[in-house]
Amino acid sequence: MTVLDQIAARIAGGCPITPADRRAAVEAIIDTLACIVAGRDDDATRAVIAAKPATGGPCDSVAGATDAATAALINGVAGHALDFDDNFGPGMSHASAVMVPALIAVGQQTGVTGRQLVDAYLAGLEAQALVGQGVRPQHYTAGWHGTSTIAPIGTAAGAAMLIGADGVQAMSLAVSTACGPKGQFGTSAKPFHAGAAARNATEAALLARAGLRGRADILEGPQGFGELFGAGVPAIWDIVPDAPHVIGVEGLSPKLHPCCGSTHNAIDMLHDLRRDPGFAADDVAHITIAVALANYRNLAYPDPQTEMEARFSMQYCLARALHQDVLSLADFTPAAIFAPHIRADMAKVEMTLLPENEQAAALKAAHRMTVRLKDGRVAEAARSHARGTIRDPLTPDQRRAKFADCTGRPDLHDRLQDLDALPDLRLLGEVLRLQPA
User: What are the residue boundaries of the structural domains of the chain, listed by start?
Assistant: First the structure.
């Protein structure tokens, strides 16, 4: 069997799924819907809508009713526009910002239940993890954005499940769309990566159903995904047919702060240190934060000039974190990023690279922080996983507060809790059609 055959067999019924797994999938879908609504008026979303306006059709988008591919594109860009959507380590991707728009689009076109949507989400997430397994972590460190390379392949498997297409062929076709350099971080091309990936996955599933064909061994074969995207390291897939689902083992990482995930360990460490040993922003003389190479490369804006650049600035995010416990959408506006007290505190932040031996010793090396205070005290911390990960999950109150921050409609958060039992996707369409307050 080829690797794609093994992935298809596993997600077709060889992967045990627990009630907790289903609950986690529902929470991820709800979180992503909130991010889509929050990003509807971002410049990136507006640009895509201007170029690809909704023209009527069976699928809902934040721009109106349209066809499946366009809905997936628009909602994917909106979902990733504010960098508030979840991270997924095994896929090196923003998994849900690609999957949720694509699966809702094909689901609305076909007519599916909430349970079928959750099934497809779990299938797509597992497929993303298995595709990523062969090239993790070197693919991401080399500069490929897994959201636009790995995520569309796994998402195509979930979309194929919803419309009755051949999953192997849908994934194979999606491999031919894989592209996206991390050099675009800090620009509106980054959310376009998610939207294009959602559109590509949607079209790959539809084209596979129509009879378009690719190679089943395109992951491991000559001139295939592993050889081309493995950064010179041999790609190895070792798929265990009856292993637990990835959502219950490694999990997703919904975000507490609307900025690049590479800043989150540092933000959380600084919040912990502010409480114990305890200090205020004015007490700080200097902060040094050591991060892994991939994270260092992601954060390319020490002096951000736009709100998008600020999301990829360690200096800005830590300056904000000196003054507040949670970063919010309001912290990423033109006025906020040029606040004089924040600019002054940005000068205190120095980002460095972790030693190579520490990075080589772990798949996800712990970031280290040293805070030097004006009175001579030194506070230190290390953290390998941010809040929101499976090791330190968000609380129900934090999830609800985030949904309210994004949509202004906490009542919809409560109604969506029964997503797995919905007879159709009309409620999800209602969320996507929300108008600005």
Answer: 3-256+393-432, 261-383
Q: Which amino acid type is present at position 308?
A: M
Dmax (CA) for the chain in angstroms is 71
d(CA 309, CA 175): 30
**Termini Cα distance of the chain:** 53
Q: How confident is the model at residue 364 (pLDDT cuts 50, 70, 90)?
A: confident
- On the question of pLDDT at 208 being above 90, the answer is yes
Under 8 Å between Cβ of 295 and 259: no
CATH domain 3-256+393-432 topology: 2-methylcitrate dehydratase PrpD (1.10.4100)
Residue 235's φ and ψ, nearest 5 degrees, are: -80, 130
Dihedral sign, Cα of residue 252, residue 254, residue 255, residue 260: positive
Prior bond to 137 cis, omega within 30?
A: yes
What is the bridge-based pairing of β-strands 349-353 and 284-291? parallel
List beta partners, residue 290.
352, 368
| The pair of three-digit structure tokens given for residue 9, joined into one six-digit string | 């067999």
CA angle 20, 24, 30 (to 5 degrees): 145
What beta strand segments (E) does 103-255 contain? none
Q: Cβ neighbours of residue 59 under 8 Å, at least 6 residues apart?
A: 65, 66, 67, 68, 70, 71, 72, 104, 105, 108, 109
Tens of pLDDT, residue by residue over 76-93, are 999 999 999 999 999 999
Q: Give buried/exposed letters for 250-261 (b at 16+ CB in 10 A, else e).
A: bbbbbbbbbbbb
Residue 93, C-beta contacts closer than 8 angstroms, at least 6 positions apart: 87, 128, 132, 146, 147, 150, 151
DSSP 8-state assignment for residue 88: B
311, 372 in Cβ contact below 8 A? no
Banded model confidence at residue 265, pLDDT cuts 50, 70, 90? very high
CATH of domain 261-383: 3.30.1330.120
Omega prior to 277 cis, within 30 of 0: yes
Q: How many CB atoms lie within 10 A of CB 326?
A: 17
Measuring CA to CA, which residue among 388, 360, 47 is closest to residue 191?
A: 47
Q: Are 214 and 165 in contact (CB under 8 A)?
A: no
SS3 286: strand
- Cα dihedral value 192, 432, 429, 399, nearest 10: 100
